[in-house]
UniProtKB/TrEMBL annotation:
Zinc finger (UBR-type): 53-132
Lineage: Eukaryota, Fungi, Dikarya, Ascomycota, Pezizomycotina
Biased composition annotated in UniProt, kind: Low complexity: 18-29
Full protein name: UBR-type domain-containing protein
GO cellular component, one term: cytoplasm
Organism of derivation: Teratosphaeria nubilosa
Keyword Metal-binding: yes
A Pfam family hit: zf-UBR
Keywords, alphabetical: Metal-binding, Zinc, Zinc-finger
InterPro entries: UBR7 (IPR040204), UBR7-like_UBR-box (IPR047506), Znf_UBR (IPR003126)
UniProt xrefs under CDD domains: UBR-box_UBR7
Amino acid sequence: MATSGDATQQSNGLQHPSSKSQTSEKSQTAQEYIASQLALEADAREALPYQFDTCTKPLGPLRQSVFACLTCTPPPASNYQQFTPAGVCYSCSISCHGEHNLMELFTKRDFVCDCGTTRLSNSGTPCTLRINASTGRKGDVRGEAARPGNKYNQNYEGKFCGCGEEYDPEKEKGTMFQCLGLGHVEDGGCGEDWWHPECLMGQPRSKLEQRQVKEEAPVSGTLDTVKEESEDVTATNGTSEQTHGDYDEAPLPQGFPGEDDFDHLICYKCANAYPWIKQYAGTPGFLPALSAETQIAQANSSLRSPPTAPVIPVKEELESAKRKAEDELENGQDSKRVKADESTNAIAAPETNGHTNGTDAPRHASLPQAPTDSVSIFLKEDFRDQLCKCPECFPRLSQHKQLLEEEEPYEPPVSESGQHENGSAAGRSVNSGSLLERGEAALSSMDRVRAIEGVMAYNHVKDKVKAFLQPFAESGQMVSAEDIKEYFAKLRGDEQAQKEAATGAANDGVNGDHRKEQGGY
């Protein structure tokens, strides 16, 4: 019969391999660590492909990607609270506000970066990319005058669309469309806001889920294979929320034009601010107007009607200027889309004759009467060619350059990947590539004497570390973080560090495992 001491030894003997195995799973070799870091840096370069070492403020007004920093300018708790909106450029969003809560607004027209200006004075966050006029050095730029010409809307508070909802990429379903932005908020327009399709049609957001459930519900007489998965989910869970969660994107409302049917959109706010644009609805280059009032009546009638077999609606000739942009940084991809500009057309001069179809009448004379209700306008790819540019119409068109030419958004220079064809450090700079490649590049550009001294010091440390690790390799024992800390503390002659390492090892020994996560070397 085994004694209690033997039993204890047997117990410890059984537990040790398990503990060792668990620690092995958490451990990784140097090569594995380097590979994981390279993978992370590759993901970062894919998500943030442009250089972020230069602020765009010195370049003046640009159509550029803008970010709202909700940490520096938190949204007001009520409408009565004073709020000073601000936006920062792509580079400042990373270099100056990288650890803040940012809201990507995508491209905004005629905007100058607010980082380091009076609009962010209360935040205490300086611009680290511009030259400080008082010191002559880069960084610590504060309190510069902000550009008075910048225009802001509710997007800078994290709110979007006519419904004013706060945008949550984790919960938002479907596609949002950016208005071409004829008018600013001061003019009664939206200021290039983003819109839900149902809000453009006058449907409340609360009807979205009802519409999805109705469209996904099984209907008698249809093929069994149609939406089989959604039927199973509905039958099993019995809730619209879980059914809704199985789809990355919500379907477009019935009557809303397909995403491929239009290139740009002018919302009803901007159309009401500049009602002359309504005359073009339904003419060549434009789809028929989408009336919110009409759609409300149709939606209510649709909800009251009994369920019938699904009918494929005839595609209405409705189109719009959508700006579709991918947010695949994410991770759960941002559902606001921006369509990349494909071509740039020169601003056309006013037509001297202004006639069409061989007549002397200007083009606008043949346009239908503008709708009197609130409508959204959807524009096809060739809409600019269809606008009347006679001497009477051109002056008002020239106030909206986006109607005369395709806008080219500013993009910072693409960041160098640092990858060379043969994988060597050749062609790399100290400021490009991965951290490992930067180290190799720094070593290759170092003074020869210092480089030799560095290699000799490295070999000296390598020999000592090899001697330290040899007993562990022979016995098969795992090397713990505390072992490493204690060893390097001895190399430095740091008595206090040795005591701390010993204390940490003693505390960990209570649970029979002397290993914990390494943090600092």
